[in-house]
Every structure is written in structure tokens, then in C-alpha cells.
Amino acid sequence: MKPFLKFYFLFVLTLNSVSADVFYYPWEYNKVYNEKITLEIELDSLRTRYRNETENSKKERLEFDSKIRSLEELLSREKEFRAKDNDLNIEKIKVLENQIAVLKTKSSNKEKELIDENEKQSKKFRDLIDGLKEDLERERENCQKKTEALQKEYERKISDLESRILVLNDEISKLKHLSENQKKELDRLSDQANELENKLTDEIKKDRSVSNDFTTDL
Predict the structure, then answer these.
(1) Domain chopping of the chain, boundaries
(2) Whole-angstrom Cα distance, residue 15 to residue 17?
(3) What pLDDT is recorded for position 146?
(4) What span is annotated as the signal peptide, if there is one (predicted)?
(5) Is 132 in contact with 71 (CB distance < 8 Å)?
(6) pLDDT by residue (tens digit) across 138-162?
(7) Candidate from 6-10, 31-35, 148-152 with smallest mean pLDDT
(8) DSSP of the chain, one letter per residue?
(9) 3-state DSSP of 13-65
């Protein structure tokens, strides 16, 4: 029994001599690895959302462009109409001016009202056209700003996630290195344990041999 107790205490002391910092529990490694996988999934999801929202933004821009073209065509037709109307009014004014020249001192309030009305209508449509142009320009700028802000935000998020993944990859690499050191240390302890066990077996055999010899002598 004494050799066995000697082996037991020697084995316990050998295990206690190993630093606790060398060991890294598997659940800690799995936790970091799972966090890396989760972040990669989140990154893929974010990229998918970015692609979808970018496509939606492109569609929205196409709709805005289509609306702008329609309004520009409407403005063009309105300008042509107003140009023809202005030409007609100019002809009317010339006729009225000729009538005024013929009548000399006669003046017609109706003629003056027509001229004033023509000026008012011209100003009204000029203001309308200018207002529509400003609205279209604001919509175009807002759409551009929204697209740029969306792109910057997603680029920032993607950059943050990629940085975190790089950090986790580095940690995983370190954990793998620690795991290899742990394995080497455990193999060394296992070899020591086997060696001690063999010595114990030899000592037990020797004790039995001595005991048998002693019994034989008796």
C-alpha cells in the first residue's frame, strides 16, 4: 500500500503544478466562435438589406425621373401653348394699337384690361413654371441625399461588423494556439502518469515477489 500512496500523492502534486492559465475551457472557445458566426450572419443579412434598399432607392429614383420627365413635357407643352397664346395676344394688341391709331383719341378700357390680363396670365404661368422647377429640384436633391446617407450608414455598419469579425478571428486563432499547448501539456502529464503507473506496477510485483519468497521461507 505504501508505493500506491506514494504514486497517488506524486500524481496529485504533478497536476497541481500546472498553471490554471494554460487551460481554456471549450465552452469559452465555443462562445467566441458562435459570436463570430452570429456576426457573420448579421453581416450577410445587412448586406442583403442594403442590396434590397438600394434597389428600392433606384426604383424610387426611376419613378422620380419619370415624374420629372412627365412634368418637363407638361411644361414644354404649356410653354408652346403660352407662346402661341402670346403670339395671338400680340396680334390682338397690334390690331388694337392700329385701331387706337385710327381712332386717335379714342381709348378703350377693354383694351387696357386685355393687356393687363395678358400680363397677369404671363406672370402667373412664369411663377408656376419656376415653382415647379424648384419643387422638382428639391425632390431630386432629397432623393440624392437619402441615397448617399443610406449608403454611408450601411458602409459604416459593414465596416464595424468586419472589424469585430477580424478581432474574433484573432481571438479564435489565439484560442486554437492555447488548445494546442493544452493538448501538449495533457499529453506530457499522461506520459508521466503512465510512467508512474508502470513503476507502481513494478513495485507491486516486487512486493508480491518478496511476500511470496517470505511465505516460502516460512
Answers:
(1) 2-217
(2) 5
(3) 87
(4) 1-20
(5) yes
(6) 888 888 888 888 888 878 887 777 7
(7) 6-10
(8) -HHHHHHHHHHHHHHHTS-GGG---HHHHHHHHHHHHHHHHHHHHHHHHHHHHHHHHHHHHHHHHHHHHHHHHHHHHHHHHHHHHHHHHHHHHHHHHHHHHHHTT---HHHHHHHHHHHHHHHHHHHHHHHHHHHHHHHHHHHHHHHHHHHHHHHHHHHHHHHHHHHHHHHHHHHHHHHHHHHHHHHHHHHHHHHHHHHHHHHHHHHHHHHHHHHHH-
(9) HHHHCCCHHHCCCHHHHHHHHHHHHHHHHHHHHHHHHHHHHHHHHHHHHHHHH
The type of residue at 111 is E
Cβ distance 161 to 42 under 8 Å? yes
Residues sharing a CB contact under 8 Å with residue 168, sequence separation 6 or more, in sequence order? 32, 33, 35, 36, 39
- Give residue for cell 413635357: 73
pTM: 0.33
Q: For the chain, give the longest Cα–Cα distance.
A: 169
- Which amino acid, one-letter code, is at 195? E
48-91: pLDDT as tens digits: 887 887 787 778 778 766 776 777 787 778 777 776 766 666 77
Q: What separation in angstroms does the CA of 32 have from each of 26, 88, 118, 215, 217? A: 10, 82, 78, 64, 68
Cell numbers standing for residue 127: 411663377
| 8 A C-beta contact, residue 43 and residue 158 | yes
